[in-house]
Amino acid sequence: MLINKSYPIPVDSEIKILKVINNLEVFNLETKAWKTLNINTNFDSVIFTLELEKGSGKLFRME
């Protein structure tokens, strides 16, 4: 889970996972379902952009 601890401002961040993964999903609280994210993979890591509203968080799972 990744969270934005700032209550006054939203955050846009580039997230880099230092491991190659096949699938990255985020849990949607409204639909109660997992959604696959588009990710950029290279030979040793995964990069994606994350937008978090003020004081919010997102739950992820990866394979």
How would a textbook summarize the main sheet? 3 strands, antiparallel
Amino- and carboxy-terminal Cα gap: 15 Å
What string, H for helix and E for strand, traces the elements in order? Answer: EEEEEEEE
Percent strand equals: over 45%
Q: Provide the structure class.
A: mainly beta
**If helices are DSSP runs of H or I spanning 4 or more residues, what is the number of helices?**
0
Count of distinct strands: 8
Give the uncertain stretches in residue-range form: none
How much is the radius of gyration in Å? Answer: 12 Å
Order the strands across the largest sheet as they lie in space. Answer: 2-6-5
Q: What average pLDDT do the residues reach? A: 90
| Helix-residue proportion | under 10%
What global shape is seen?
A: flat
Number of domains: 1
Structure description:
The protein has one domain. Helix content is 0%, strand content 51%. It contains no helices and eight strands. The strands form three sheets. Strands 2-6-5 form a three-stranded antiparallel beta sheet, with no helix packed on it. The chain has a three-stranded antiparallel beta sheet with strand order 4-3-8, with no helix packed on it. A two-stranded antiparallel ribbon has the order 1-7. The relative contact order is 0.44.
